[in-house]
TrEMBL record:
GO terms for molecular function: DNA-binding transcription factor activity; sequence-specific DNA binding. The keyword Repressor does not apply. Residues 206-304 form the HTH araC/xylS-type domain. This is AraC family transcriptional regulator. Pfam families: HTH_18. SMART domains: HTH_ARAC. Keywords: DNA-binding, Transcription, Transcription regulation. PANTHER family: ARAC SUBFAMILY, HTH-TYPE TRANSCRIPTIONAL ACTIVATOR RHAS-RELATED. It comes from the Bacteria. The keyword Amino-acid biosynthesis does not apply.
Amino acid sequence: MQPPLQWPRCGRNDFKFCRDDTAQENEIDMTVTRYPGNFRIGVLDGFADGVGDPLPCRLDPKFQILVLLAGRQVFHLDHHRIELDAETGPHAVMMHLTRSCTLRYAGSWGDPFRKIALACDCDWINQLMGEDGTRRGLLESPLGYVTWRPDTEIARLAVQIVAPPPTETTAQANLFRMSRGLEILRRCLTDHLPCGAPPTADPVAETIRLYLNRHLGHDLSLPRMESDLGLNRRSIQRHFTKSFGCTLRDYVRTERMARAHRALAEEGASVHQAAHLAGYGTVANFSTAFRRIYGVPPKDMRNRSI
């Protein structure tokens, strides 16, 4: 059996999620690797019980994604309370901080306590997103964040970052982690800052949209949405249609089909798997709808994958 891979330790100011940038959590530290462009990936895997450092500290501007795979964590950004609880599945937060703010941990618990963190400079993510105003979403806020339950693919990528396959060199392991981290970044930006979503000043409509994105793989019903969102169906439909110019049904159908397209073009999914992702009961109906939208049958799209 090969010994576990050891990452090169970075300095105490390399990650800056908590006071000392190695994100201390009681008996364990976050191991951080810095990549070109100041893109950073951190891994924390161990035991946590309580508050490692209760004192507030300053958090510098940055863009960050945290994916909690096991355990529970509560912290405050200025007056915003953020709680991640992975008891029922991975829980994540994406943050865009254009100004300094105060971070205070309320506690971390778990045995294991397992999470990954991706971080980069605000300028880097802004250049990546370009000038397209329809994709900026939370990037417009000086302290913007969104929490959600990541899908199985993001969870799988996060697990691979925590436990990469055996490699011959540390450089290979770091490159493997970087590729997974960038793919998580791409998926998160696609899910939460989609190209086709126009900007909206209605936070209720945005909450509804993010809810739909999180539940694309599940059966969506208005009674369930009413219960989960605390709104009646008329309010849900009115807020959403006014802000995004389409019905709930049309939005879900479009997003599911886009997800199926990505699975075929980028992940080598089978046509049957793509049909399931798009919510179709038969491959024939899915193929007809896919060709009408993209101009080619799904089997041809799959043949283009690398």
